[in-house]
Amino acid sequence: MEIVEVVAGIVWNRGRVLVARRAPHKSQAGKWEFPGGKIEKGESPETALERELHEELGIQTKTEGYFATNVHYYPTITIKLIAYHGKYLSGEITPIDHDQVEWIRVKDLLSYEVTEADIPFVHKLIAQTDS
């Protein structure tokens, strides 16, 4: 099975992190994720992240460093999810593939139903925040 490379943003603004709920017409509908998208051929993950966040949410961000990678096997697709920290710069959030977007405290992530591929990132963020 082909592995699809996807990038996710741990986007920060005023001590809170951005999470987005997948819209009803998308796979994993109703689950929360760190927003991002597919990396296009010849594109760096950092460039892909900034492009995807602009296209899908209408915001400008600055990628600030690698966070973690998780390979997850869904029944119909395998994804290599690469997460980066990012900083919110500007723009009013206007979601396209999500029906809700929130800025939340890291400790509140456990109260959200997160996509399976993002769960390791949630636990790592919480562990880093608690230490």
Account of the 3D structure:
- The protein has 131 residues and is of the alpha+beta class.
- It has a single domain, classed as Nucleoside Triphosphate Pyrophosphohydrolase.
- Strands 1, 2, 3, 4, 5, 6 and 7 form a seven-stranded mixed sheet that branches.
- Helices cover 19% and strands 44% of the residues.
- The mean pLDDT is 94.
- The protein contains two helices and seven strands, in the order E-E-E-E-H-E-E-E-H.
Task: Give the strand content.
Answer: 35-45%
The CATH class is identified as Alpha Beta
Please name the CATH topology.
Nucleoside Triphosphate Pyrophosphohydrolase
Classify the secondary structure makeup into a structural class. Answer: alpha+beta
Mean pLDDT: 94
Domain count: 1
Shape: globular
Number of separate helices? 2
- Low-pLDDT stretches: none
Rg measurement, Å? 14 Å
Q: What is the chain-wise order of helices and strands?
A: EEEEHEEEH
Distance between the termini: 38 Å
Going by CATH, the architecture would be Alpha-Beta Complex
Number of strands: 7
CATH superfamily: Nucleoside Triphosphate Pyrophosphohydrolase
Please bin the fraction of helical residues: 10-25%
**Major sheet attributes:** 7 strands, mixed
